[in-house]
Amino acid sequence: LPCPSPPGSAALQPPTALRICTVLCCSWGEQPRLCQAACALGRAEAPVRHGAALPLSLDSALQLRGLGDAGQRRAVAERLQEHAEAAMAAVMAAEAELSPEQRGGAHARTDVLGVDFLLTAAGDALELVAMSTNCGRCLETCALLEAMGRDVGQPPGDMARLVAECLLHRAQRHLVRGCDVLLVGAGGVGKSFVWEAAREYGLRVSGAGS
């Protein structure tokens, strides 16, 4: 994307970088899903750290960075979602290849993940770079952004609902893992997802014809 100059005098505006915190969760179907993004502006040579500034929404931060065109801001948002979900997918794929001991337990896995990005100028373009993953700092920052929005009358975001759904799904899987289930009349080929879900949940399934 073209790299516009920040508003105001160039002599008074130091080079800036945009830190973007993203929160992702493992949704139904074991697919990564972006829940929320929160941003902070900082100097390019020393990007702002977690908790050092009040968070901004992605759209507001991009406008402050000089992206006045709504289409460009949507393009950045789409690219951010693509890269954030790809980062979580890579973490999940790496975990799948680890032994239970390496993962931290027989059923240990990543269900909620924070990924930090840096949006900065690279020549005449804006470059989005993934910096690190974390457990709680991105979640804290994004939760603060949503709380600030509620205080000024903005509608609540989806982050709390999506994260709660993810954790409840994980709890349900834990409760039924290892149980014996009898399926009566499980159906034909169209109901094959029943067996796939049972395998993912760790159920021992026996069937009876109708």
From TrEMBL:
Under what name is this protein listed? CRNS1 synthase
Note the InterPro entries from the entry: CARNS1
In the UniProt record, the gene name given for this protein reads Carns1_1
UniProt cross-references to PANTHER family, sorted A to Z: CARNOSINE SYNTHASE 1
> Which superkingdom, per the lineage?
Eukaryota
Which GO biological process categories is it annotated with? carnosine biosynthetic process
Q: Which GO terms describe its molecular function?
A: ATP hydrolysis activity; carnosine synthase activity; homocarnosine synthase activity
